User: Fold this.
Amino acid sequence: MWQRLKRCAKALKNDGLTLWFACRHPDMPLIPKMLALLVVAYFLSPIDLIPDFIPVIGYLDELILLPAAIYFILKLVPASVLPSCRSQAAEWIATHRATPRSAAGAVIILLLWMVLFAALWKYFGDDVMKFFGGQ
Assistant:
């Protein structure tokens, strides 16, 4: 069972890097490229959309959402682009041994959190201030 989980994790890493190279490929269509950019930004971001310290749902994005998104985006990558991107990903893993990190992905996740908190504050802000004795 552990071997199977290790294989799945390695395949996810390979497929995430494959999408990273597919985003840079000149023959990649625009719509799949934009979707792949979002998934790759999240995949390479050091910050999670759902923090891991939240029980149960903290790992939901890594266990279900991210693999599903990578799987469906890979289905949109043209067959002519996929083999070269897979070979580039395998070469990257062989030479670098580490998954690249994306500062842009981290910024996107932080911006999403800021938008969420701003929306929550706009909706609940007056009630929170009244609760704590503010005007």
In short: The CA atoms of residues 22 and 82 lie 7 Å apart.
